[in-house]
Specification:
236 residues, mainly beta, outer membrane lipoprotein receptor (LolB), chain A, globular
Length: 236
């Protein structure tokens, strides 16, 4: 029988307890605060793994992110500097930087979170509720609902033994259409005292072809030039 804590009865954990366990599992509040930047290097697998791109993602507090995918000398870039997002899409024939819409930036804002959606949720203006447990590929995961300030809803599934995120299901309206994006996280490795997922599989819920990121190298607190996150300006 599953422990009583796996229900929604009197022994069910509170949101505060789960968030505290999540922070502790990641390495603790002090280690998280000390982690100011992350550089993740690896490969991006798309088209059911048939196409492999070199992958680099850089994150920097308080909320900047840049993701690059390179294939055959062409590099796709998506970046967010905390205020606006932009992209370069050479695989769609567009080699000049383009500003991204507010809807398109939502996913980048979430990618920029070094700590994940639960840490400092009150300061972020989110509303968080514990919804009990739900099966995630055979694991009775703790299910936590996060309603973000921008209206996006993320269901965060925590491993019952380690209290790290194993799945995040995000629901949002994008260009007038409803979408659900499911991200599975695993193979956590420690960098500067903080556990970071090195296997990330993401795509529309129910879609057979999800993209997979496999991280080979995690670098913490390396110097990062803020310029890489900002929309490129033409050199004089």
């Amino acid at each position: 029988m599953a422990p009583a804590i796996f229900g929604q009865g009197k022994n069910a954990p509170t949101v505060e307890e789960l968030v505290s366990k999540n922070i502790e599992a990641k390495g603790g509040a002090d280690a998280l605060r000390a982690l100011q930047s992350l550089r993740l290097t690896g490969k991006l697998l798309v088209n059911q793994g048939q196409i492999e791109l070199a992958y680099v993602q850089m994150k920097k507090r308080p909320g900047e992110v840049r993701t690059e995918g390179t294939l055959q000398g062409m590099t796709q870039i998506e970046a967010y500097d905390g205020k606006e997002g932009w992209k370069i899409s050479p695989f769609q024939g567009r080699k000049d930087p383009e500003k991204m819409s507010a809807d398109d930036v939502k996913s980048l804002m979430e990618d920029a979170e070094i700590d994940g959606p639960l840490v400092d949720w009150k300061a972020k203006g989110s509303v968080v509720d514990y919804l009990g447990t739900e099966d995630v590929d055979g694991t009775p995961a703790y299910k936590v609902k996060v309603v973000r300030k921008n209206g996006d809803v993320s269901y965060v599934y925590l491993d019952p033994d380690h209290f790290l995120e194993i799945r995040i299901l995000t629901q949002r309206t994008k260009h007038g259409a409803y979408e659900e994006v499911e991200t599975d996280l695993g193979d956590y490795e420690k960098a500067a005292g903080v556990f970071v997922a090195t296997s990330i599989e993401s795509g529309r819920k129910g879609a057979p072809d999800k993209q997979r990121v496999i991280i080979d190298k995690v670098e913490a607190n390396e110097p990062v030039d803020d310029k890489i996150f900002h929309f490129p300006t033409a050199s004089k």
